[in-house]
Amino acid sequence: MTQPQRVAVLGTGIMGKPMATNLIRAGHDVSVWNRDRAKAQPLAAEGASLADSPAQAVEGRAAVVVMLSSGPVCDEVLFGPGGAAHAMAPGALLIVMASIGRSEATGLAKRSEALGLRWLDAPVSGGEKGAREASLSIMAGGKADDFTAALELLAAMGHPVHIGPAGSGALAKLVNQLTVASTIAAVSEALVLAEAGGADPARVREALLGGFAYSRILEQHGERMLTRNFAPGGPAKHQLKDTRAAREVATELGLDLPLLALTDGLFADLVEAGGADLDHSALYLEMRRRNRLPIGDHLDGG
Amino acid sequence: MTQPQRVAVLGTGIMGKPMATNLIRAGHDVSVWNRDRAKAQPLAAEGASLADSPAQAVEGRAAVVVMLSSGPVCDEVLFGPGGAAHAMAPGALLIVMASIGRSEATGLAKRSEALGLRWLDAPVSGGEKGAREASLSIMAGGKADDFTAALELLAAMGHPVHIGPAGSGALAKLVNQLTVASTIAAVSEALVLAEAGGADPARVREALLGGFAYSRILEQHGERMLTRNFAPGGPAKHQLKDTRAAREVATELGLDLPLLALTDGLFADLVEAGGADLDHSALYLEMRRRNRLPIGDHLDGG
């Protein structure tokens, strides 16, 4: 029983494109804008209208989904010269689903509210596959009423959960990235210990998947580690950006989170060793390098 | 198409009792022995024959499942005065499913083989629930032929995987425990960051369960953390014993596994703070204590 809405999507890259497609398929009237227009073009065949500017895309739209590459890019596209936020009607809903920092989110929320806009920070987890299959985990921060108003749109793209006030969606995403990063490090150590101890790490992984040690990381990234498939996915340099941001928030809050600090250092080592553009599961290579196990030619320094 | 076998089970505690029950229900003829006979008594109603000694239990049995509390206890019951191993017929299969050290396993394997016995170290993961539901993850070390011979028995208790030679089942279990311990630490940090940042940690957990951060630990132990349900389950002191054993093996192998070292230290802190007998998910309390967040009266020092 979808109530069709007039929606804009700003940013139709790896994630934004399938998300826009799912909004169209759910029956919504979708306008799209992307800096590189060629990346938005295929959406026209799905039924989207292509806009020449962010301001044109959002005009007359009840809700605007933003899936740009970073906080500063969201800031520029929304509030820079010719910015989209100024072209939105008061009362329209701005939903920033890009992964941005917690203070970036609260800053943008304040400026949006000053223009009479409603705000949600609603970053996602689940990757390109989750975006395609509309199975993204969506972590929303903002007012409960605004979350309710956005629920139908969000549900067309995945599984939305209202975390708390503005900024708490961004915080939840950092918590998610912290958990993913530390679990990748834990699985890397596990497979190194198994192999060094003389067991077949693939069989150890298989056995572990059946018990309390099961994680999606062990299943998906563990398989990448064992088959040396480090084509991203989520590149290590982005994972490092996230652990760095999580450490900054932890420091602001006066927290001492030792696994986060350690894992952040390991990802920094991986990036320094030449693994910036490998999938974050390549932390396994860094753990092997650290332990003088063969790593093939995946790292520049290898 | 079960081929009924004559089996003995030594040790019918929290895990051994439901495992013996599942062997009986699969059609096997099962004799049982437990030091405290009262704990074996209920199995008589299921159809088990109760033995007065380990030697009596194993006499004429094709396979002997050992689920005692530790390596030294297995050693004593199998090879001490009146030990069961000496009462087993040559060619019989000794399956030690207790969690014992890797060198304990290889030592017992050698002594068993010297008596002409066949050997598997086959520790499990999945807890009491897994034992009851015959869904244990079973990590088996030993000869491939002996694994094949044991497959039907093991499958009556869970999901067996052949890891490699004798000792590699025990190694896999240590790898499992390392993974579980580090993941508990990662989830503890995640929930602390969520709460300190002003989000509802229960909603953050819910959202994270839908993405790459999903782990059985986040699901089951995460719920324990948030509801402060620290009745074991797996007590922290056993988890510490396991991380300590994993560190020892890592040291023997010349490995540097920083998360393991850190997590082991955190469990040591928890035990020292009075949490030895709480479920291992109580590491969350240690993470809160470390960050001066309220911990209620769960820890003696709280």
Give an overview of the whole structure.
The structure is a homodimer of 302-residue chains. The first copy, chain A, is 53% helix and 13% strand. The first copy, chain A, is α/β, with parallel strands linked by helices and 302 residues long. Chain A has two domains: 6-164, 3-Layer(aba) Sandwich (Rossmann fold); 171-290, N-(1-d-carboxylethyl)-l-norvaline Dehydrogenase, domain 2 (Orthogonal Bundle). In chain A, strands 1, 2, 3, 4, 5, 6, 7, 8 and 9 form a nine-stranded mixed sheet that branches. The N and C termini of chain A lie far apart (56 Å). The model of chain A has no long low-confidence stretch (mean pLDDT 96). The interface between A and B is large, with 78 and 78 residues.
SSE layout and pairings?
The structure is a homodimer of 302-residue chains.
Chain A: E1 6-10, H1 16-25, E2 29-33, H2 37-40, H3 42-46, E3 49-50, H4 54-58, E4 63-66, H5 71-79, H6 84-87, E5 93-96, H7 102-114, E6 118-121, E7 124-125, H8 127-132, E8 136-142, H9 144-155, E9 158-164, H10 168-196, H11 201-208, H12 216-227, H13 236-252, H14 258-275, H15 283-290
Parallel strand pairs in A: 1-2, 1-4, 2-3, 4-5, 5-6, 8-9
Antiparallel strand pairs in A: 6-8, 7-8
Helix pairs in contact in A: 10-11, 10-12, 10-13, 10-14, 10-15, 11-12, 13-14, 14-15
